[in-house]
Amino acid sequence: MIGRYTTGACSGHNKATVIKSFALLDLTNGMRRNIWITAHLPLPMTDIMLRYNKGAFLPPLILLLVGMVFLNLFFSLSFGFDALSALLAALASTVLVLTVGVSPFLTNHSLSEKELVLRQGWLFRSFIPKEEIKSISVMETGPRRTGVFFDFKGTSVYVTTQRHNLIRLTLKRPRRFNWALGKKTDQIVFDSLDQRVFFRAMESKAEITPASPAR
Question: What pLDDT score was predicted for residue 182?
Answer without folding.
Answer: 67
